[in-house]
């Protein structure tokens, strides 16, 4: 190797190392911010989390208050969101990927859906206030809140469904068609099953985004103090109260947390931190479920 | 492999079933709620719906908590803000509205349009505290005129140093902290000090979160700011409150304290907080019971959440106003500052 080449190699190696260091630095900045945040939350709030905190309604006394109504609220709202956004989103994704003709209209729809994913959530809140709360007359109910968040995450579900369908190799379709399967059979027997991992990952990530949303729910009138739970669908006499919970007023975890951080006294800030830990724990475990599902589904696919 | 697919299929089927359930209930609700009015709650009409100011929220929350514990009647309280609360209230969507200022002319018009009549009930005091860093040994009191000199819009960029206000104060730039422009606190302070709501200089650290203001003032020796009394009380060790001298009432410099506020001596920076009750809702026995409970217990509960209650005689007059259902506002849609409780109660609602 002559001198010239050695010099060039040394320079390239140096560049390599610089970029490597830069990459590590950037990762560390992101990670340490997260770690600091989590650490601060844990230090402030962890000691506050106990059974009482999970099973009490909000109160003017910090040590007596809890997050019962808000976590139940978050749960039932997510139920409505999931039950609406998932089938709608998957169906729309399948249509656009498999049935929709590639034309100008389809392109316009595609561009719009991609853009919708980036619309600020407060805009969805305002739209929901007009359409769900007033026009459809749903009021400030679990149903209105759930539908609002469903519309919010719909683009994410659609996009991830389409991505997942695209990963199925074309040979699989061709093989199925070759055996005389109809289009719907190809989709339901093969495409949907193989892409289930990708779809469920998208769905769970979308849900964990929705669970942290505050702005659109405040806009449609989610509450801050509510010390009763939605009527159980199984309440006696049995079938009569089946859908009552959908019309119940509600509070959600992020709103409760927001309200506590703005209180004057320290002990409410501890409550807020504790609620934050619960919220992060829920989000992280949802993500863990997503990873697990993806892993499990992939393991069974051998093509 | 096959069995695991079957499991996932069952899952998908369950989701689909749940979705169908969701859809069917959607249709139910859109037909059902038209008859029941906007937002009929699950428990029927027995829920008492309250929304409005986040400043009044802690008091109403405390009352709602105790009331629900005592009677099992459901109460919900939101924090849409005074303006947002009135918007719902004047459409007839809520039973009670929390307000950190009297109802404004356009809100009165909206209520009239929708046939909503209301009773205006002052329930306690809130006071704004002008605070500095505990190390600011040179200052103990400030006049409203001086505050105006600091905070008026024209001061922006010109009045920047302590000694521009009083020559004996240090030749150091001050750092200002105040409420964000969406809060009732901002409206009230600017109204009381500068003479016009929302007229303020813009070059100060503004925050809707009063805890940020506490931290800011605590962290800077030359800081000056204003914040609600309820936030000053628990942070007494970190902040130093200034006595405020209002030239107009000739009482002299007064430090904020419960006694001074009740006695009407801490003006113009103390303000009454209100709840508005819809006449139609008050006809419901549970709402009537709630308001009576509110007026009976607010003295104790307001103190507990660090607000200043009205003098006992005032509550007698207010209860009477509610009992007689005297509707309308005593302010005629125009906000005013520096009124004593007696003055407020003397005003006949119109």
Structure description:
The complex is a heterodimer of chains A (303) and B (350). With 303 residues, chain A is mainly alpha-helical. Helix content of chain A is 72%, strand content 1%. Chain A folds into 2 domains: 44 residues; 250 residues, Orthogonal Bundle (MetI-like fold). The longest helix of chain A has 43 residues. Chain B is an alpha/beta fold and 350 residues long. Chain B folds into 2 domains: 198 residues, Periplasmic binding protein-like II (D-Maltodextrin-Binding Protein, domain 2), CATH 3.40.190; 136 residues, Periplasmic binding protein-like II (D-Maltodextrin-Binding Protein, domain 2). In chain B, strands 1, 2, 3, 4, 6, 7, 8, 9, 11 and 12 form a 10-stranded mixed β-sheet that branches. About 9% of the residues of chain B have low confidence.
Number of H/I helices of chain A: 12
Beta strands of chain B, count: 12
For the record, the CATH class of the largest domain in chain B is Alpha Beta
The helical percent of chain A reads over 70%
* DSSP helix fraction of chain B: 40-55%
State the secondary-structure class of chain A.
mainly alpha
Strand content of chain B: 15-25%
**First-to-last CA distance of chain B:** 77 Å
User: CATH class of the largest domain in chain A, please?
Assistant: Mainly Alpha
Radius of gyration of chain B from the CA trace? 24 Å
Assembly state:
heterodimer
- Give the tally of β-strands of chain A: 1
Give the SSE layout:
The complex is a heterodimer of chains A (303) and B (350).
Chain A: H1 3-45, H2 51-55, H3 68-99, H4 104-116, H5 121-135, H6 142-166, H7 170-178, H8 183-194, H9 196-210, H10 215-220, E1 225-226, H11 253-261, H12 266-300
Helix pairs in contact in A: 1-12, 3-6, 3-9, 3-11, 5-6, 6-9, 7-8, 9-12, 11-12
Chain B: H1 2-36, E1 48-52, H2 57-71, E2 75-77, H3 81-90, E3 96-99, H4 105-113, E4 118-132, E5 141-143, H5 144-151, E6 175-179, H6 184-194, E7 205-207, H7 210-218, E8 223-228, H8 229-232, E9 240-241, E10 243-245, H9 258-262, E11 270-278, H10 279-282, H11 285-304, E12 308-309, H12 312-323, H13 341-346
Parallel strand pairs in B: 1-2, 1-3, 5-10, 6-7, 6-8
Antiparallel strand pairs in B: 3-11, 4-8, 4-9, 4-11, 4-12
Helix pairs in contact in B: 2-11, 3-4, 11-12
């Amino acid at each position: 190797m002559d001198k010239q080449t050695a010099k060039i190699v040394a320079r390239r190696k140096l560049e390599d190392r610089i970029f490597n260091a830069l990459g590590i630095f950037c990762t560390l900045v992101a990670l340490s911010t997260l770690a600091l945040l989590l650490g601060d939350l844990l230090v402030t709030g962890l000691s506050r989390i106990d059974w009482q905190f999970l099973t009490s309604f909000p109160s003017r006394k910090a040590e007596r208050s809890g997050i019962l109504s808000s976590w139940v609220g978050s749960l039932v709202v997510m139920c409505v969101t999931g039950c609406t956004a998932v089938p709608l989103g998957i169906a729309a994704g399948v249509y656009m990927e498999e049935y929709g003709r590639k034309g100008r209209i389809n392109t316009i729809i595609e561009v719009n859906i991609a853009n919708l994913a980036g619309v600020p959530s407060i805009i969805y809140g305002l739209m929901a206030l007009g359409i769900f709360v007033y026009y459809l007359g749903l009021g400030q109910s679990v149903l209105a809140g759930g539908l609002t968040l469903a519309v919010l995450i719909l683009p994410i579900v659609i996009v991830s469904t389409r991505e997942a369908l695209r990963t199925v190799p074309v040979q699989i379709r061709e093989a199925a068609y070759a055996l005389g399967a109809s289009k719907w059979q190809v989709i339901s027997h093969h495409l949907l099953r193989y892409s289930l991992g990708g779809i469920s990952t998208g769905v769970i990530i979308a849900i964990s985004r929705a669970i942290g949303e505050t702005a659109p729910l405040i806009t449609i009138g989610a509450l801050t103090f509510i010390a009763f739970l939605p009527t159980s669908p199984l309440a006696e006499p049995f079938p009569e109260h089946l859908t009552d919970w959908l019309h119940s007023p509600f509070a959600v975890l992020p709103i409760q947390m927001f309200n506590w951080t703005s209180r004057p006294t320290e002990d409410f800030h501890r409550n807020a931190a504790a609620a934050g830990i619960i919220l992060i724990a829920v989000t992280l475990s949802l993500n863990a479920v997503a990873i697990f599902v993806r892993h499990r589904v992939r393991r069974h696919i051998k093509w | 492999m096959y069995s695991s697919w079957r499991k996932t299929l069952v899952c998908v089927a369950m989701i689909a079933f749940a979705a169908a359930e969701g859809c069917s209930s959607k249709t139910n609700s859109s037909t059902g709620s038209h008859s029941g009015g906007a937002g009929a709650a699950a428990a029927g009409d027995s829920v008492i719906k309250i929304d409005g100011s986040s400043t009044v929220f802690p008091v109403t929350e405390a009352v709602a908590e105790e009331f629900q514990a005592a009677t099992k009647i459901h109460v919900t309280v939101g924090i849409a803000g005074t303006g947002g609360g009135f918007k719902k209230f004047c459409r007839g969507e809520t039973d009670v509205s929390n307000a950190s200022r009297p109802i404004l002319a356009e809100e009165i018009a909206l209520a009239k349009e929708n046939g909503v009549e209301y009773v205006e009930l002052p329930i306690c005091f809130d006071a704004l505290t002008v605070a500095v860093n505990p190390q600011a040994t040179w200052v103990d009191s400030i006049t409203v005129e001086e505050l105006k000199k600091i905070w008026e819009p024209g001061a922006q960029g010109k009045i920047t140093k302590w000694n521009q206000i009083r020559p004996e104060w240090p030749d150091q730039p001050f750092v200002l902290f105040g409420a964000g422009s969406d809060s009732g606190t901002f409206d009230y302070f600017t109204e009381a000090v500068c003479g016009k709501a929302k007229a303020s200089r813009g070059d100060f650290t503004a925050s809707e979160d009063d805890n940020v203001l506490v931290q800011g003032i605590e962290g800077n020796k030359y800081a000056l700011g204003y914040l609600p009394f309820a936030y000053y009380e628990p942070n007494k060790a970190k902040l130093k409150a200034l006595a405020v001298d209002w030239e107009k009432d000739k009482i002299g410099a007064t430090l904020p304290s419960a006694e001074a506020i009740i006695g009407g001596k801490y003006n113009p920076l103390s303000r009454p907080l209100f709840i508005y009750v819809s006449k139609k809702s008050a006809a419901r026995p549970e709402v009537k019971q709630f308001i009576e409970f509110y007026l009976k217990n607010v003295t104790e509960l307001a103190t507990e959440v660090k607000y200043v209650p009205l003098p006992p005689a005032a509550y007698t007059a207010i209860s009477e106003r509610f009992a007689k259902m005297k509707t309308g506002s005593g302010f005629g849609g125009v906000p005013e500052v520096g009124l004593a409780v007696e003055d407020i109660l003397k005003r006949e609602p119109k």
